[in-house]
Design a protein that fits this description.
Rossmann fold; six-stranded mixed β-sheet; single chain; alpha/beta; 3 domains; Immunoglobulin-like; 13 helices; 34% helix; 437 residues
């Protein structure tokens, strides 16, 4: 209940008391309260100007962003101004400012990002109150900014340390065919968890009394390209953030491979075109280049759980020519096909998408990559695994389960063409690399 309502109730009770006891004093007190409230309401006409400036337009997760708010009281009465950051993707400390008439103040405070991605932040909401907290008005400060929040290298390192097997990268890369082993033996070493048992040298093992494996010289290492789906449907989410998970997963895989001296690049695409292309290199700066390319803004809404029927039959010539133009493309190629065509011959492709969004186009991409001597795998993000328990009820559980079974069948069919790893919010780099093995 507002304070004004309490004062009105008090005034009403005083009027009733004066009437019942035939006493003019309570009635006069009630009248005085009514006049006091009316005077405050008539005199409360705030005019406030505010402008917020951010120290930078990009930051990393966990790092606060400094904001400077310039606020001025252009009215004739003293005011209290409460600063409210109503963006759900950022949290801030509580800030309240007292302003005399025609006074201007500068206030510094910090915004802390809740998740990763690219966000558009409106100006601060200014809740202007009188000194007695009876009345208030809300104003929107100037200063709309786009802020890019990237995964921090420290968080990637910490997540990568979860896997204690220090030899996992070499094993994973061998299984991924990112390099070819020659018949020339480079040397012998102690067996490590994750090594191929076929490479055990049994003579050396019997002689030394411990498992010994043969190491082979690599003739070459191919470039690795991460083909990341940044389409609207991939960015659509409810409570659990797919974009946040996607950014963390991609940055972890990129850092993981770069730390093992691999040349890594990235292609970000949507439904119709390539959005970002980062050429593969093995330099330390490539980590930042990959993070800078991950500008993906989340979209609020219910993600599609439907699974289209997958068939090897091609579309008709009419649809092949007309549909691209209906979708805004200038050619027959979709975003994922254009992305796969942009990587060099013989590169290894790690495609990160939802396999149910475009299975036919994905099959075309896999075949084209095979023709270009480019092996590939698919990391499929399952939107069902991002549903909250509160989103489930008796009515929708049968439908969700049906879609889940359809996804499993689609993955089974797609596995004939390419290895598919399905992931959810609980899967990070350790689980993904183990699945790659």
């Amino acid at each position: 209940m507002e304070r004004e309502d309490l004062l009105f109730i008090l005034a009403s009770l005083l009027f009733i008391q004066g009437f019942l006891f035939v006493n003019v004093v309570p009635a006069l007190l009630g009248l005085g309260i009514i006049l006091y409230i009316a005077n405050l309401r008539l005199s409360f006409s705030p005019r406030v100007y505010g402008r917020r400036v951010l120290s930078e337009s990009r930051t990393v997760e966990g790092k606060p962003l400094k904001a400077l708010l310039i606020v001025k009281n252009n009215s004739k009465i003293p005011l209290k101004v409460k600063v409210i950051e109503d963006n759900p993707d950022f949290e801030s400390e509580s800030v309240e400012v007292f302003l005399n008439p025609n006074e201007e103040k500068r206030v510094e405070y910090f915004l802390r990002p809740r998740k990763k991605g690219s966000f558009k932040i409106k100006g601060s909401l200014l809740k202007v109150k009188d000194l007695r907290d009876l009345y208030y008005e809300e104003f929107r400060a100037e200063g709309e900014f786009t802020v890019d929040v990237y995964p921090s290298v420290e968080s990637i390192k910490e997540a990568s340390k979860v896997d204690r097997n220090v030899r996992l990268a070499e094993k994973a890369l061998t299984q991924l065919h990112t390099g070819m082993e020659s018949v020339e033996i480079h040397g012998l070493r102690e067996f490590q968890p994750g090594d191929d048992t076929r490479h055990i040298d049994w003579k050396a093992t019997a002689r030394l009394g411990e498992l010994i494996v043969r190491e082979f010289l690599r003739e070459f290492k191919g470039d690795i390209y991460l083909l990341v789906d940044g389409s609207k449907e991939m960015r659509r989410e409810l409570k659990k953030s797919k974009v946040d998970y996607l950014s963390l997963l991609i940055s972890q895989i990129g850092y993981y491979l770069l730390s093992k001296n691999c040349r890594v690049g990235l292609v970000l695409f949507d439904d119709v075109r390539v959005l970002k292309f980062v050429r593969a290199t093995g330099t330390k700066e490539q980590v930042n280049n990959l993070l800078n390319a991950l500008k993906i803004s989340p979209l609020k809404g219910i993600p599609s759980l439907k699974v289209p029927k997958f068939s090897s039959r091609g579309r008709s010539e009419f649809l092949r020519k007309v549909m691209p133009f209906l979708k805004g493309r200038k050619s027959y190629y979709s975003g994922i096909i254009e992305a796969s065509s942009s990587i060099p011959f013989g590169s290894f492709a790690i495609i990160v998408t939802d396999i149910a969004l475009r299975p036919k186009e994905l099959a075309v991409v896999i075949e084209n990559l095979k023709k270009n001597k480019s092996p590939s795998i698919v990391i499929s993000i399952n939107p069902i695994l991002f549903l909250d328990l509160k989103d489930l009820n008796r009515e929708n559980i049968p439908t969700i389960y049906k879609h889940y079974v359809e996804r499993e069948e689609l993955i089974r069919k797609m596995n004939v063409l390419v290895p598919v790893i399905e992931v959810g919010p609980a899967d990070l780099i350790r689980e993904v690399v183990e699945a790659m093995r």
